[in-house]
Write a structure and sequence with these properties.
The protein is an alpha/beta fold and 204 residues long. It is built from 8 helices and 7 strands. The longest helix has 17 residues.
């Protein structure tokens, strides 16, 4: 039975459709999740719904690094244990979390929230590149690590950023061995990310 077949009550159709709209969720999975929610007690269902509303209402981008936070600045930027001398640039929040899981990086981050992609009509002005350049000018870090996926869009974004930051005199490096061409930072295991960070190379 598929959504829109008329076999479900309209409210259930809408619930299944919302789950099905999530990335990586097929129709059957959406149906299972919808039926699971229907099994919740009213209190559990309200808690679930409120968690979504609260997250959407309270969570926003850190004013410094563009990470997600429910305060003015995120926990990484506000930590006195993090070195401000190194900024690790990632395309996505999930990449930040992946690097954090490796537990060997002690600097700060900058999240672009995307990569340059002419095919999808995403240019430098559509992601947080301008904010990165401003940070480098104002904070004068010793090094900027470009932890972007080694695919066409990641390479194009890294090249654009390296050219933009070159006049500022900051050392620019890329993640090195361990990340295969076409691979994604998000899905790399902890050991792979550790090696990539340890063996990063300078960008010419």
């Amino acid at each position: 039975m598929r959504p829109g077949s008329g076999l479900y009550p309209e409210a259930l159709e809408r619930l299944v459709s919302q789950f099905a709209a999530l990335p990586g969720v097929g129709t059957k999975s959406a149906q299972r999740m919808a039926f699971r929610v229907l099994d919740y007690s009213p209190e559990r269902a309200e808690t679930f719904a409120n968690a979504i509303i609260e997250a959407k209402t309270l969570i926003h981008r850190c004013e410094i690094c563009q990470n997600l936070t429910d305060g003015e600045i995120c926990s990484v930027c506000s930590s006195e244990k993090r070195s401000k001398a190194t900024i690790c640039v990632v395309a996505d929040i999930r990449d930040l979390y992946a690097i954090e899981r490796a537990r060997n990086y002690t600097g700060v981050y900058h999240v672009l929230h995307g990569v340059i992609s002419p095919m999808r009509r995403i240019g430098p002005e559509d992601i947080a590149i301008a904010q990165l350049a401003e940070r480098v000018r104002n904070e004068a870090p010793e090094e900027v690590i470009l932890a972007l996926n080694p695919d066409t869009e990641g390479e194009a974004t890294a090249m654009y950023i390296s050219r933009l930051l070159a006049p500022l005199g900051v050392k620019i490096t890329r993640l090195a061995t361990g990340l295969p061409a076409g691979g994604n930072v998000e899905f790399a295991d902890d050991a792979t990310i550790f090696r990539a960070l340890q063996e990063r190379i300078a960008v010419s």
